[in-house]
Every structure is written in C-alpha cells, then in structure tokens.
Amino acid sequence: MMSVRYVQRTAHKVIECNNTRKFSSLVDCGNFGFGKYLMRAFSSNGYSDPALHVESLRGLLSDGGKVITDITAIGAYNLDWMRQYKGSSEVLIQPRSTYEVSKILEYCNLNRLPIVPQSGNTGLVGGSIPISNEIILSMAKLDDVISFDSTNGILTCESGCILQDLDEYLSQYLYMMPYDIGAKGSCMIGGNVSTNAGGQHFYRFGSMHANILGMEVVLADGTVLDLLNRNRKDNTGYDLKHLFIGAEGTLGVITKINISCPRRPRAQNVALLGCDNYDAVQNILLLAKEELGEILSAFELMDQTVLNAVGRNIDIPVKFRDGQSFPFTILVETQGSNHEHDSRKIEELLEKGMESGDIVDGVLAQDRKQIGHMWEIRESCNPTMGSIGYTYKYDVSIPISDFHDIVLRMKDRLSHHSNIIVTSWGHVIDGNLHLNVTTPNVREKESDILGLIEPFIFETVVQRGGSISAEHGLGQSKNNYLKLMKDDASVSIMRKLKTEFDPNNILNPGKFLPAL
Amino acid sequence: STSHNDDTNKTIRNTNNNGHTDDKNKKQPSLVRMRVLVPVKRVIDYAVKVRINKSARSGAGHVELNNVKMSMNPFCEIAVEEAVRLKDKKIAEEIVAVSVGPAACKDVLRTALAMGADRAVHVSTPEDLRTDYDLQPMSVAGFLYEVALKEEPDLVLMGKQAIDGDFGQTTGMLAGMLEWPQVTFAAKIDVHDDKSCTVERETDAGTETLHIPKLPAVISCDLRLNEPRYATLPNIMKAKKKKIDVIDVDSEGTSIRMDPMIEMVEIYEPESRKGGIMVDNVDELIEKLKNEAKVI
What we know:
The complex is a heterodimer of chains A (about 525) and B (about 300).
Chain A: E1 4-8, E2 13-17, H1 20-27, H2 30-44, H3 54-60, E3 66-68, H4 71-75, E4 92-94, H5 98-111, E5 115-118, E6 135-138, E7 145-149, E8 154-158, H6 163-171, H7 189-194, H8 202-205, H9 208-211, E9 212-218, E10 224-227, H10 241-244, E11 253-260, E12 267-275, H11 278-292, E13 296-303, H12 304-310, E14 328-336, H13 339-356, E15 361-364, H14 368-379, H15 381-388, E16 389-397, H16 403-413, E17 421-427, E18 432-440, H17 447-453, H18 456-463, H19 482-485, H20 488-501
Parallel strand pairs in A: 4-6, 5-6
Antiparallel strand pairs in A: 1-2, 3-4, 7-8, 8-11, 9-10, 9-11, 12-14, 12-15, 13-14, 13-17, 16-18, 17-18
Chain B: E1 34-39, E2 42-44, E3 52-53, E4 62-63, E5 70-72, H1 74-88, E6 92-101, H2 106-115, E7 119-124, H3 137-151, E8 155-159, H4 170-178, E9 182-191, E10 197-203, E11 206-212, E12 217-221, E13 231-232, H5 233-239, E14 244-248, H6 249-252, H7 282-291
Helix pairs in contact in B: 2-5, 3-4
C-alpha cells in the first residue's frame, strides 16, 4: 500500500495515510467542500475581496479592456465545459493588451487579489474555473495575429487566438498548426500552451515543448517577460519558456506566442478500421508504423461502447454485426507531400492488415468530406458521453498493452451498478487512454461510485509506471494526487518555483500544486 | 460493410431491398439486366476553400489547383452510388465508369471501382487542358458519345453538373448526340421489368414525376437521390484487379473538337463580408439602418 502524507491546513495536523482508502476520503473535497475551505483560506491568507476593487481595476484599462460585474454575464465563465465545476467569481476582466494585463497583475499583486487566468474555458480538470470568488482574467480579447513568417513557418500571435482560427489563417499560406484537439473551435492558444495540450497529432509533430519557440509572459508582479525568441535553435541560458508550458497559469500569464508550424500536407488519407480483439489493435499499430513510416500522423482508438453511443447521432460507416460497432475501431491518418506515394503506402497497410485478419473490415475516405466525417466521429466521443450523464473522466498514460486490461478491470469493479457505462478511447499510439465512466441521466457526482473508481484507477496506473494525467493536466481535479507521481524532492522544488514566481499566490491559487 | 436504407424501389415487384430473392413472398428474379455507364469527373474537393490566382491566364485568373485536394465531383459520386444500388438490386449487371481528362483522372475511376463499378474507361486528354475551363461540355459530351456507342449501355447515370465549371450542359448535349430521352435533377429512379423507367425530379416548385417508356436514356442525378457509400477495404482490394481501359486521345487522334467554345474572361472572389458592429442602443440601431445601411 502506498504511504502518503497529506497535510490539512485548518487543523495544522499532519495525517499520515498508510491506507489509501483513507487517503481518498481526505482528498475527495468535492466542489463545494473544497471551495468553502478555500474561501476561509483566501480571507485567512490575507486576500482582499475583488468586489471592492472594481473601479480601480477599471481605471487601469486604457486600451479598451473591460471589467464586467454582471452576474449573468459572468455565469458562462464561472462554469466549465463539462458542467462539473462552478465558481463564484463576481469580477471578470477582459484586457485587450499585454500592457493592460501587466497593470492588472501589478495591482492585484499589491492588493492581494486572487486571479484565475481563463482562455477558451474548454479544460477538463477545472483549471480555469474559480474555486471561490477569484477574479477571472479572460484572455479572449487578446486575439490578434501579429505576424507570420512564411519562409520559416513561424507564427506570432496573442494568446487569445482560437486554435481553429489560427489553422484557417495558416491554410492560406499552405501551413497548419502543429497540434489539433477536439475543442479547436473554442480553445485558445494561451490555454493550450498553459496546459501543454497534446491532441491527435502529438505523435507526428511532437509536444508544445518542441513547437513553441518563444513567448511573452506577464509575471505576478506585472513584469513583462520577453521570451519571444524566433530561432529554432538557441542555447543561451536556462530555457525559461518551458516552465510556463504546462504550468496552468500558476507561474505567469502568457500574452504572446511564437510557434513553429508545419506545411499543410498535399496528401491526406484517413481510414476507419474494425478489429475484433485487442491483440489485433497492437499488431495494426506496429504494422502502421512499419508500412506508413514518416507519413503516419494519427492513430486513435475507440471502443465498442463509445461508438455505439456516438452511432446514435452520427452514422458510423464501419459496423461489426447486429448494428453494433466493432470491439475496437481504429482511426489512422497519413499526411504527406505526394498523393500517389501515400496512397500506395496506405493501401499496402490495409492489404497486409486484412490478409493477416487483424483488420476485419474498414473504410478509406475518398474525399475531404469523408475525412471530416471520420474525425467528427472521433471528436464526438467526449461530448457524447458528457451529454448522456455525469462523466468521471480519466486521462492516463499506461503501456499500450495494458489498455484493454485496465478497462476490463474498471468494468468489473463497477459491475454491480446497473446505471453505469464504462467507455474508452484515446491516442493509443502515445500510450494515452481516455477512460470514462458515465451515469446515464444522472448529472451529479455520486461519492459511492467515485469511491470505486478513485483511488483505484490512479493506484493501478502508478503501479504500471504510467501517468495519472497524460495531457489534461491537474487543475483542481487532480492536483492533490500529484504526490502519487512526483517524489517529495520534486514537489518541494515545484513549490519553491511557485513561491519565487508568485510569492503572494495570486495566480490560480488552489490549483495545480497539492493543497498544503 | 454498411447496409443502406433503400426506399427507392417499391415498383420493382420481383426483388426486395437487399437484392436477394425471398422465397416467402414468392418473388422472381428481375428480368432486367442492364449495363450502366457512369461518367465521373475529377474536380477540386468540395470541402476545399477555393483560392483565385489573379495573375494567371494573362490576367483572367483561375482557381488555384496547385497542391489542392482533388476528389470525385459530388454529383458524380451520387450517380455511382445509384448505379451500385441498381446492381445490388440485380437490375444492373455491369457498371462502367468513364472519365475524360488527363492522367490524374485515374484517381476518381479507382474510387468508382472501389464503390462498386465493374470496370472503367479513361479517355486520356492532354495535360495542358484544364478540365474546369478548357475541356468544355461539347467536347466531353463528344467523347462520352463515342464511349457510349462502343459500350452500348442501357442507362447513362451522371451528375447534374460539375462543381468546378458548373456548366450543367453535358447531360443534355450527350442525350442529344445519342438521340436518347433525358431526365435531369433526378431525386428518385425506378427501373421497371419492362425496361421503362419512372423518375422523380426536383424543380424549384416541387417534385415532378416523369416516365420514360423505354430505356436507353440519360439521367442526371441531384443531391436528394442518395447518400454515397464509403469505399470499404474489401472493395478497395477488389478494385485493384478491375480493368481501366485507356483511350489516349493524343496518340490515337480524334475527330472531336477539343478547343473551348466559350472563353473564360474573368474570375474573381466575391466581396468579403464586412464585420458587424455592436450598437449601444435601439436609437443608434435605427439611425444606422436609416443612414448607413439605407434599408429603412
């Protein structure tokens, strides 16, 4: 059994947990329990009430930014996309320039006002929703594309630009964004960078750390840090930008980004493949890497349960039998510069896969409409389950060979409950599984169900050497589990960094790092 | 592979929707055994955002096709799907796809084969003739006429227009050359045992039903006719073995005139929409509607 040390602030007691069951009950603060705890913490920590500073904040906005206090208008910003986290912010600020962001942070630092930086509000761990009445700093109006160097493929833009808009902007120059996620119509690049978003092209183009060349960040005291390097290679000093990538707004507020973009492919192929056992999936993955080589750009997995649900709204062109989807459906994508070359390669893969019997059936898209439809199926998995009922979401990294086993074990643990659906999908090529548990028609979290899932899922993942949060981050959902993944020495250094960058803890307090 | 919800076929007395004979209802196999010719065109992919190269063609401009995704014309896809459904019902025995254009046309012929066509004919024209501007309906109809004379189909099913040229003339010209009846904008096609054919066609005012007393005929297909199927892997594999006959216009020569009869004078993008503005109150709205938009 894992030994965890969890410190509860109010009682100044150190509770040693040798039993992880006890650990989970301590950690399960729920949305409002923790919030109430923090509201006491906020005031007892010396935070000021944002509502008292509205006029002063308004006075700082000289470039057209707005301070909004109308509760109805703020409502959408106080609620996350999955409707699982509800904040009680009374002050929303929407700056229009880096200068305004700097002035706001400077003021808030001096007056001890807690801030939640918010980008597109599409996060899945409550990282951009206030826990209590923190000020919401919406980056949505910093939405200028500043420049694009079409020779080098370097895009410079403000952090409030929407991912899909950026991709469309780049398409006229025959370039594209190096990452793609389902939330592209709403998510903004600042939030993507702050959460180190992964997505479906991670295998092909790498992570944010690989593609972000530089950024402009405003620190907690209002200092504007110019890290806007435009060089592919720059080995001069500690590479500070990497600290902010994935820091979830706890070390600084990103205002501008330089990102390296790849060329748009001339040839794109997408196929949906049906397998009837998990070994076949692993075989096809290896075969795809071998046959497709450098043109392989995405390899996604969807299980039978989720596609049966998606199939109620969207037509799925690959069916198993009796109208059911295949036990495992793979979406494989290629991107390359030569249509004939790519078609030959993917047909080779499909032929070999069918010969071996690993692919039972499948379809290959013949035009962009069909390509779009196939990706729509994959991107509908998350919203579909979310629409059915409350969804307990787990985004984990585990060995690819363990995917199926973990899903079966979770189904087994929950088998006594009649109103539960367990679904799985994910970026199998990256070893990233999205495991979801949904209670149809029930829209609230139920602690008995939660107790069966957590900490079991995290323990299992950690035992297998995986990660409890592959790409979604920690936010307020998983921050208290950080110690399962990182040792005391690491967490200690993280806390020191946080204190160095944000001594008054005004940036996204209560998130990312475990509560003290 | 997918099953299609097929409701187009109530008048065929002898086959049920899956084309299988059903002993319970004592249906006999269809007496019709047709060859269907399906012309297909390779065009810019319907989902692509079209860009104009203003300086091309001595200033007349043209749609930029360099590095742009090309696919089968959506209406041609619908025509292929309809032909394959006729084959599923055992009304059609053989489907021949044909395309007129340069070497790259083979792509759409392969798609047609993967959807279920049995073989294909490629009328190969010179590379420098763009199939959206230079190779125009009169020429294309001429080539299709020659192929039709050779293949002797009972039915020509084709798209109502191509989304690049948007001419919409090839159907009529081909029917005229063949002296066959034509029905355009088909939304529903029923072929009967006596080789007559009932077609519902879409008009601005509604649907009209026409009857072709005896095939052969030329029918052009509209959007509502069907939802084209995906190319399944088994069919893609089978398609690789299917024949594509090439008629090389350059080397074999032709009497069909290939030069365009209509000159494309200018092509330009529509004016981009100006962004909207927020007004602060109703009075300001009324003032702007009156004085700026001039609509009241």
